[in-house]
Design a protein that fits this description.
The protein contains 2 helices and 2 strands; from the N terminus they run E-E-H-H. With 111 residues, the chain is mainly alpha-helical. The structure holds zinc ion (ZN). Zinc ion binds next to loops.
Length: 111
């Protein structure tokens, strides 16, 4: 079940040398068991992977939220721009403003 974690080298707990992890679980320098250090290293890698996944999930959500906000602001800019440049009466522009406010509220309510 640990096949996804490929260890190349570990530091031997007994002699402190960095040794390649092959099929054997014994240090070629001192003959000490590498079982514990391999287990520790795999646990560390597993935790790192979990943390990285959690971070990327948060990041994806943050980007999505920003994109949603950008879409709302683009809509406001487009409508505000056309209202200011066009021959739309003040009352109509205010009505459009109210409409946008409702639109923003509903846009954020969806989440
Ligand atoms: Zn050793």
């Amino acid at each position: 079940m640990d096949s996804e974690f490929i260890l190349k080298k570990v530091c031997c707990e007994y002699c402190g040398s960095y040794v390649s992890v092959d099929e054997n679980e014994t240090c070629p320098n001192c003959g000490g068991s590498l079982r514990d250090v391999i287990l520790k290293e795999k646990t560390r890698l597993r935790l790192e992977k979990i943390e990285a996944e959690e971070k990327s999930a948060e990041e994806a959500q943050r980007i999505k939220d920003e994109q949603d906000r950008d879409e709302v602001f683009d809509l406001i800019k487009t409508i505000a721009g056309s209202a200011a440049g066009g021959a739309i009466a003040g009352g109509l522009a205010r009505a459009a403003g109210e409409f946008i406010k409702e639109d923003i509220k509903s846009a954020f309510r969806k989440k």
